[in-house]
Amino acid sequence: MTLADAQTNVDLSIRHGGSEPPIPQGSLAAMLRDRAERFGERPAMLVPQEGGGAVPITYAEMVAGAENVARWIASQASPGSRVAIWSRNAVESVIVQHACALAGMVVAHFNTGWTDAEVRHACDLIEPSLGFAGFGFRDMDLAPRLEAIASFPVLPLANVAALAETPQTGDLPDPGPDAPYLIQFTSGTTGKSKGALLTQHCVIYGGWVRPAVYGGNEHDVWLNAVPYHHIGGSIAIMVGALATASAFVVLERYDRDQTVRLMREVRPTRMGGVPTMWHDILSAPDLPSDSMVRLVTLGGATVPPSIVRAVQEKTGATCGIGYGQSESGGITNTVPDDSIENLCETIGRASPHTQVLIADRETGEALPLGEVGEICARSPGNMTCYWGNPEATAATIRADGFLRTGDLGVMDEHGYVRFAGRLREVIIRGGENIYAAEVEDALLSHPAIALAAVVKVPHERLGHEVGAVVTLAPGAEADIAAFEAHVAEAVARFKVPCHWRVLDQMPLTVSGKIRKVELEKLFEAEP
Question: What is the CATH number of the domain that holds 460?
Fold first, then answer.
């Protein structure tokens, strides 16, 4: 069966998100200059102050500073060269990222949680011509560490402020929309991190798509602590605000008390984060009752219904769920009038201008509706390639342009996709496939469970069994027998966890996702 045949068969798992509204055209460099020219006095960034409140940086100031830094970078390297940033979130990181767009450079953010070996791998892979280093966890100065690894000049990120204020001479190139722009490193859950190469237009799409779906406008204020080494920060927040000429708050890191304080002080209209963060925010005793928040986007994990309801009740905001990855941002989205069930049980439908396919893992063909297969996407947000890794690129981007996500899903007759976990998270117990996400959904529907993760536990005869790690809702007690009975009502008996751990706190990545590799280690001593 050809792809064209599949697209005309409504019983197969392939859907297009439509061609409206139109995607902004041109390069990111052109968009930056347009915003400075048309909305120069409008705040682009809000910088929190220790004494309270936040100082605005206008579009005119931001772009003027980025142009000065771009001219300086252009004097140090040629267009297409890579520029590395290793730092927690900072105004200077934003300036350097935008400067790279204006100078036709390729920017790469390094994860602040990386070891020296992981940083060395990234440097060897992309061969930066220049690096900027700021601060990481516990105010650690990362510059000495990067200098010891790098074969290229490394500047303290703090120096960018002076560069931005110093007029520079020299012409800047006019990079087109297809100019390579951002290397987004993968999480490295199945080996060493790969660098997904994204063009300037690809990044525009990734930032534009969610405001387009949820009605973003120039009056929005974005408050989200997602790190800039994640596409949620470097694209969804930084470029999302740019796409609507609105403002975002520069947060160094996630801190619940600071987030709640800024909800009162800067009156954000758009917030986001993973469920673990919102579990903390909603429990704050001083959560403002007069919130201006219109939209809270949740992602990165299965979303408990209790979290969605609590967000809506305590903030008055609409909740949205989005799905994407380093290789392709904005693959699916829910829409404002979606039901609680769709918000909690699905990752939405294909985003505008994007095709989503649930494919047979062996043949690559579209599966019938209701069957679990690999989520594939053909989208303006798809990466060009994995930098320096043609073999991985060929294994990920199909000949027909669909990108294989490595994630599992199932599509219903309305085009909604239910996430079924990572391919590597499939638990094969005695020849039966068990999808972690399905069991996690069942766990999270129990009122005593706040967070849940399902992992594989080695078993000599069966291959693997199901392990569950949970944290409890405030005041709840662990009743494993009750949890097992509850799950057994939703899934087949062989899918019910038989190994359990109850934690006070889940191990999380910097971006707030549960670190399942660490959870698997909890069961290594199991018989």
Answer: 3.30.300.30
